[in-house]
Amino acid sequence: MEDTTFSPAIATPTERLRPARILITEDEFIVALDLQSRLQHLGYEVVGIASSGDDAILQVQDNQPDLVLMDIMLYGELDGIEASRQIREEFDVPVIYLTANADSATLERAGSTHPFSCLLKPFKERELKFSIDMALYHHRTAQQLRMAYDELERRVQKRTAELAASNNALQNELRLHRKTMEDLCAAQTIAQSADRVKNEFLATVSHELLTPMNGILGMTQMLKETSPTAQQREYLDVVQLSGETLLNIINDMLDFSRIETSTMRFSPVAISLREQVDAFFKPLKLRARDKSLQFSWAIADDVPDQLNTDPLRLGQVLINLVGNSIKFTDCGQIEVKVAQLGVENNRVHLAFSVRDTGIGVPEGKQKAIFEPFVQADSSFSRRYGGAGLGLSISERLVALMGGNISLESKLGEGSTVRFDLWSDLTDLPDCGL
């Protein structure tokens, strides 16, 4: 009996819960019994002995061995080589060939079936054990690699499917986004067209109304100079006041149309700020006095007097803001202040504030009143008149002059409107309108 204490140089996972199950295929029964005894002595389990290739295939199917020891030369139509080929292909069971002698052609044909080993009879037990253990180890490793590859392939396919689904969802989202953008562009085009038509309508109507309104006011003034009776003069005063109110609305609509269509221009000239502000506020002081309101204005001493700005647009903003204060203040006072915020590169930064003790604006309406045709309350237009364009125009004019406008107000306690602007400094004495 051969020495069985030899172990292979390469460590193999021979420790398992059960011994390896081996099928012997050998047509010489005595040789098969000897081989069975040797295998059992080595610790393996022999699940059967097949005497032919066909019998080997049937027993592999029934007993499911871990390995087949296959004699190449078998009796019958199916030799060991062809039987091994079918076993490897159909059942994936490793095969070790056993042969006493074989010609080179037979051995070459046997090699094409990719056996794990080929032992020449007679062989030693350690050679048998080494070949079996290595065959089982490599077969198990190959199975694990195939399983890992299959798992990797499954994950790749799953991830590919997920990416494809994600890509499809992204493509759908992109298509939806393009459709939304197209709809928005179409809506913007329609809105711009409607806005253009609105502005053209405002400009046309305002121009058409301006000429007859000036005629009405002119004729009213002429009638007042013809020595009318007291009652007729009262009627003419009402006509003139109504006409002037309507003329202001028409002028506001014209200004708004020019701003919206970017046809309004800022035309700076040299002015004296203090003389100009006095000129702006003298008519407003009379209106304030008619309502028994205190109206005052003050320009800080450090504010330069000689500026280069557009007096028409500056006056329009100040007159709008003070006019609003007078309109919405029934008692108390209106105060205008002008201060300097700084000087930089021959330009001065000015701050204006208009404070009143009027009705005030609710907090939720303070942003809305800068929108065109909007007043804090719909009842205001019935009580105080106006088209709701004054603050909207003022905001745009201030922006045109490089500044910002803001409102602080408390309902029932009054409002303060602040705006700032930049103006070039000039030494020219010109102070005309």
Index terms:
single chain; 433 residues; alpha/beta; Rossmann fold; Heat Shock Protein 90; seven-stranded mixed sheet; five-stranded parallel sheet; 52% helix; 18% strand; rod-shaped; disordered C terminus
Can you put this structure into words, describing what you see?
By secondary structure, the protein is α/β, with parallel strands linked by helices. Helix content is 52%, strand content 18%. The strands form 2 sheets. Strands 6, 7, 8, 9, 10, 11 and 12 form a 7-stranded mixed sheet that branches. A 5-stranded parallel sheet has the order 2-1-3-4-5, with helices on both faces. Helix 2 packs parallel to helix 3 (80-91), helix 5 (125-224) packs antiparallel against helix 6 (230-260) and helix 7 packs parallel to helix 8 (311-327).
Structural class: alpha/beta
**Count of extended strands:** 12
Q: Looking at the structure, what is the overall shape?
A: rod-shaped
Unreliable spans: 1-15, 381-387, 428-433
Count of DSSP helices? Answer: 10
Mean pLDDT: 81
Beta content comes to 15-25%
Radius of gyration: 53 Å
Q: So, CATH architecture of the domain at 269-425?
A: 2-Layer Sandwich
- CATH superfamily annotation of the domain at 269-425: Histidine kinase-like ATPase, C-terminal domain
Query: Alpha-carbon distance between the termini?
Result: 131 Å
Q: Summarize the helix and strand pattern as letters.
A: EHEHEHEHEHHEHEEHEEHHEE
Helix content: 40-55%
CATH topology of the domain at 269-425: Heat Shock Protein 90
The CATH class label of the domain at 269-425 is Alpha Beta
